[in-house]
UniProtKB/TrEMBL annotation:
It is a multi-pass membrane protein. The chain crosses the membrane at residues 52-73, 85-105, 111-131, 151-170, 176-196, 217-240, 252-271, 278-299, 305-324. This is MFS transporter. It comes from Pigmentiphaga daeguensis. SUPFAM superfamilies: MFS general substrate transporter.
Length: 358
């Protein structure tokens, strides 16, 4: 291996490490504020609607800009891409598994502000070491950022989430709620119109003509409803209703989050012998059974029996979680993989934001 090849290999390794580090930060950005919300409320006050934006603001910002970012870079392909996605999924799973405990420890010893400082430090490391080594997209016809598209999509998603969050306060048929939801619909229509007119849109609507592509986009919506919502709301319930400390609440989340460090890897192995679609569907059925079981658990009685349905939900959700990232790019041509990744990530984050708001 000559010097140039060694340098290229080193750069790819650093890029993958930076992406995995960013992947580790994502679950910390979910679980940390969720565990910290009761402490923030004790310190600063705030209504439930205002406190909900502690998590919603992150999801909204990420969901809005990741679509545009998906059109800018694609570093791996072929078997290397599959290995990269596998490692990224494992890193994400580790963050999910130990994020609640790490957040509880930080809050207990350094206060809730340390949660956000941790995210800033990780983000700075990614920018410093990863971004300078990332290459531009291989699509020769790419045109860079779509400013108007990004703006209209962000405004549409913001108005939709705000309308859902404030709906119970003003009434679903109230003037304010209807105005917010109507404005969201209008901005979404403007976004679609802008993308249809662009020669190289950041959202290629023609991809939605393929049933397999549409099916893959529904997977993150399903996992948002059956898993991510619990990841955010259960710690708040453990602290505010059951009376647990932040650290104990983080430990109580282990049955839900620990499978994410194991099951996605096993799903990748199973996918060598069984269809990924069947495995994903089976996992969602298992998660649905866990949700039905969870609904029978008493509230406010500090029952440890809740860990079993949580474990079942984590195992079931882990199956599609470990497969859907690679599926999102495998159903489109290679040169559109960056866009497919952006669309998929946007659907994931937007779906999670809407599910949490609901």
């Amino acid at each position: 291996m000559d010097a140039n090849m060694k340098a290229a290999h080193t750069d790819k390794t650093i890029v993958l490490a930076a992406v995995c580090l960013a992947g580790l930060m994502m679950p910390l950005s979910f679980t940390g504020p969720a565990v910290a919300t009761p402490a923030i409320a004790r310190d600063l006050g705030g209504s439930p609607v205002a406190l909900a934006w502690v998590v919603n603001a992150f999801v909204l910002a990420f969901g809005s800009f990741v679509l545009a970012a998906g059109t800018l870079a694609q570093e791996f392909e072929g078997p290397a891409r599959t290995r990269a996605f596998s490692l990224l999924g494992t890193t994400f799973g580790v963050g999910l598994a130990f994020g609640p405990i790490w957040s509880g420890l930080l809050i207990e010893h350094f206060g809730w502000r340390s949660i956000f400082l941790t995210g800033a430090v990780i983000g700075a490391l990614v920018l410093l070491f990863g971004v300078p080594r990332m290459r531009e997209t291989r699509d020769p016809d790419a045109r860079g950022m779509d400013g108007w598209g990004t703006l209209t999509f962000t405004v549409a998603l913001s108005l939709l989430i705000f309308g859902i969050v404030t709906g119970p306060q003003y009434g679903w048929t109230g003037t304010a709620t209807l105005a917010l939801l109507g404005a969201a619909l209008a901005m979404l229509a403007a976004f679609v119109a802008i993308e249809l007119k662009r020669a190289r849109p950041m959202l290629d609507l023609s991809l939605f003509r393929y049933p397999r592509f549409v099916g893959v986009q529904l997977l993150p919506l399903a996992t948002a409803v059956c898993y991510v919502v619990l990841l955010i709301l259960l710690p708040i319930g453990f602290i505010g209703v059951e009376g647990y400390s932040e650290l104990k609440a983080g430990m109580m989340m282990i049955p839900l989050s620990l499978p994410m460090a194991i099951v996605p890897f096993l799903a990748g192995l199973l996918a060598r012998r069984y269809p990924a679609g069947a495995l994903s569907a089976g996992g969602l059925v298992i998660a649905a059974a866990g949700l039905a079981w969870l609904a029978t658990m008493p509230v406010g009685q500090q029952s440890m029996a809740i860990i079993w349905p949580m474990l079942l939900i984590g195992i079931g959700t882990g199956l599609p979680w470990g497969l859907m990232d690679d599926l999102s790019v495998s159903v489109v041509p290679k040169e559109r993989a960056g866009m497919a990744t952006g669309i998929f990530s946007t659907m994931r984050l937007a779906g999670e934001a809407v599910a949490l708001a609901g």
